[in-house]
Design goal:
272 residues; alpha+beta; Lipocalin; eight-stranded antiparallel beta barrel; 50% helix; 28% strand; disordered N terminus
Length: 272
Amino acid sequence: MSQSDSSKSNEWITQSEKDALMKPIRGTQNNIITAVSGAVVLGNHVKQTGNDAINGAQILGSNIKKGAQFVYPYLKEGAENLYSEAKTLGKKAYKNTEDAIKLTVFLCQTAGGCRRPDYMVCSGSATTLTGAITINLHNGQSYIGKGLDSSPFVRSKKHNGVDNSKESIKKWSDVLGGSGSLGFIFNKEGRASEGTNNFLDGLGGGAGVTLRNFRVGVAQPVNTDWWNLTTPKAIEIGLNTQKVGWDGGISINEKSVNISEEYNKVKEKLSK
């Protein structure tokens, strides 16, 4: 036997067997390398996506900041104009309070003596929509009213386009408005509290005129004859945000909380 043959026979594993064993190992190594490379690529994409999101958020934040800086002066000027108009209107309304008291006393005297009001109503309007809170001053029953105001249909009250200028703020004073009045009901049916409840509950209509922010109006339930002087009617006297003008509309009142009863409940709880 030759020396080469002797060395081959002494080998524990042949080269072909080694190759057969290493083949799957090399394949696994290649798969691992491929997976690691894919993970690196995916990580780069995720990182880039994160960077893009951060950049986009920074750009959005910058645009929002620029927009706020651009709009703020206009909002500030509009708010200052609105505050100035409201302040001036408040001063005028305060000055007219004395005239309102004098006229109320005069109307009371012409009606045969002063009398306590039956209800108090505070109302607000935006274009043709109105809302009001009415309180029966005899028993504290409150009502929530909602309806339509006819005065914005007047041509002088229609405005196209409103911005933050002083002229537009004055336009809004026509479109938006509010008033507070005391109501005196005549020809009430039943006791004072019940008659006032019957008058206020349900569908009603009214109209009024305003001069120097002082408003005088009339109101009555819709289900009664307007021209029949013996049916319940009310005279309303109060103040209006509108300096000069008229108003008229229809609304429906729904019962809400009884302020007197709620006050007594709170009073009882506090006394315990």
